[in-house]
Every structure is written in structure tokens, then in C-alpha cells.
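One thing: could you explain this record?
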Amino acid sequence: MVNKFHIDQQTLKDIHIAASIDGSVFGIFDQTVTEGGQQILRNLFYSPLGEVDLIEQRHAKIKRLIPFININFSFDRLGLKDLQLYISNHHTEGVIVFNFLNLFRLNTPEYFYKKRHIIEVCEVLIKTRAFVMQCLAQTEDLVMLTIRDKIEKCLQNFFKSQLYKISMLKVNTFNIDYYDRMIRKYLAEDLIDIFNFIYEVDAYLSIAKVAVHQSFCFPSVYSKGQSGSIEIKGLYHIFHKSPVKNDVLMTKSKKIWFLTGANMAGKSTIIKTISIAVYLTHIGFPVPAYSLKTDVLDGLFTSVNLFDDIELGYSHFYSEAIRLKTILDQLDKKSNALIILDELFKGTNHNDASQAILEVIKYLSEIDGPSVIISSHITDLYQDLKSMPSIEFIKLDIEKDVNGLPIFTYKVTKGVAEERLGMWLLNKSGVFDSCKRLIS
């Protein structure tokens, strides 16, 4: 049975995989120059994989194009789409007969568009041939050899020599119907193959460029249960221009992270960073890190950006409870999915939240399978949780300057955060000054 990687729409929304006001992870990788390439990239991006060999096959397709990222690969985005429609509109049968009445169509829209399409098809063939020949000069690639032969076959129908220049292409009223029929009938299948080649190269070349220019790594992925761990070196958030890099290690024996940190310490950022890395790993894309090693997971589920549901009459706390149930109901008993819960049960009072978190963690610690990251401000739970062997206490480290003021390092380390910065942040924001202005 094929193993699948499960993810739901809430998770995709939580970690900005799809478009959002903060940008999207897809947008980082989308450097495509054609609509067809963008569509292939989108299909890859929203098709996570649950098998090691499929992930490695996708790696291979991306790595194959890395040597060619600096070779010119530019096409008219709308022009290609128009040409594909022209080629796909198959030529009807009929004998081509010239008569002098044909001379009168020289200024008709039909003649103009037909001539333009013929010339543009040849331009695409010449441009694609140039790219393929430069690639083949570096390495012998069977796919590119096949495409080169198809391009040569097509071009030889328009040019008498192998000196392929548009200036040497003479399209006129005497041959325009012949060329039109050649393209839309006899060469249509080869031309569609060539266009599909352009689109696929466009998609994978886009990923390859990002991998090289941003120094992303290709994860090492193992079969389910082989290592029982997620190990990431030098992980950073894909949206940050000057990111802080962190090392992450989750093991089977320490499968639950209890993550603490003061306001603005970076808890939400690190959990989104880990989530994005796991997702990219399972679509076979490179990851913003020095290295990543993990077993293939069953899925990724997050609870980060939840709100009250007025229509259903759900409070924030009840929405959190329903979200957690929804996540758990998507797992089977042998699942090794990663579950991430940000500020769990923040929609209720301190005592209720403490009791609820403690009970949930007790149950999760008894489930043999999923890894869990729970971020929380409720640090006094440490006393109740420290006896549970499966829990790793992780905090976002904060240092102090010479004046005793906090320095946010955004680095994860073992331990429980003890800093209390709420009042300091309120003072820093100027909210009390605004209150005083209204009083005076």
C-alpha cells in the first residue's frame, strides 16, 4: 500500500503555503516564465509525497537542471499559451490550391495571425534549440537529446540549411497554407511534446534556481520508522532576509516538545519554520537549512491561527478543542505525523488552560506515533510534566544587555523560559503614555 502524506487546509493556511497577505512559500519558488511551467510547479507544490523513492525522484529532476540555471531560458508568457492553442487547433483536411484570389487576403486578419503564428513557432523552436544545445555541451542528457532531434525535425521543414535564423524564414502567400498545415497537422504531436518539455524545464529550473541562489539543502529522507527522528541543522525561516539559524532534534524517546518563551521571543516563528521545512521535504523540494534528516511522515497538522466561529457559536477555546479533535481524527494508530499546537488553549483562563494542556499531553504521551510540539506561556506546568520521559523542554533563549534589558536571540535551547516581559513590552509600546494623556 502506498504511504500518503496528509495535510489539511487549516495547516496550509497556518504556515502560509498558499497565498496570504504575508506572502506565500509557493511565491518563493515561483520563478517560472511560462503559464504551463507555473501550473506544473503548482501541481508539484500541492502534491505531497509519502514514499521515499518518489521524493528522491523529484530531487533528481531538480538536481539535473542545476548545472543549467545560468543558461538563458526566457519565453513570452502569453505568447506560448497562444501558440499552444494555435497548434492544438488541428488543421482540417483539404488540398492546398493557390489561385490569384489568395493575393487579396494579404491584408486580412486571418493572413496576419497565421503568418505571425508560423514565425513565432519557429522562434520558439530556435530558442529552445539554443537552450538544449548549451545543456548538451555540458552533459549528455537522454531527454534533451530526444527533444533536440524533434526540434531539428521540425525546423528542417522551414529552413533549407541548419543555419536557423528567423530572418531567413520567408512566409508569403505562396507557402503560408503549407506551413500552417505542416504545423497544425503533421508536426503538431512533436510540437506539443516540445512545449511540454519547455513547461517541465521551466518548473524544475525555477526550483533549482532557488535551491542554488538561497543555498537550500536537499533533505535526506528514510522509510517510515527507520530512524524515528527529525534532525535539522541550520534551519531558518524562509521569509526572513537575515534569519537566525537553529538546530532541531526530535527523537522517538522525546517525541513531545513543550516550547516556552516570552512574548516576541519567537515561538510562533520557530514552529512555522519547522512546519514549512517538513512540508517542503515531503513535496521533494529543497529546504532552508544546512541539512535535514527525517523518516517520511504520515502528515503535518497545525493549530496556529484560530478564531471564534460566530456562525457556529464557538468560543475561541471551543474552536481550539474542535481543531485538536479534527487533527486527531485524521490519524491512524500507527501514524508518525507531526502535530504542532501554538499557544494551546489560550482562549480560556490560566487554571482551565493548565488543566486542559496537562490532560492533553498525558494522552498524547501514551500514543505510540506522532511527534508533537506544544507552545505555551504556562511555564508552571513544568512541575507536573517533568516526570514524563517523553517530554523535551525547549525554550526561546533571551539574554540581557549591560542595563538588564532583554536581548531576543531567537535561538532554541533546552529548558523552560522564566522571563516575564509583559509589563516591559507594554511600557515599550507607549500604551501607558497614551492612557496618561487622556487622564491629564
About this structure: The first strand starts at residue 220 and ends at 222.
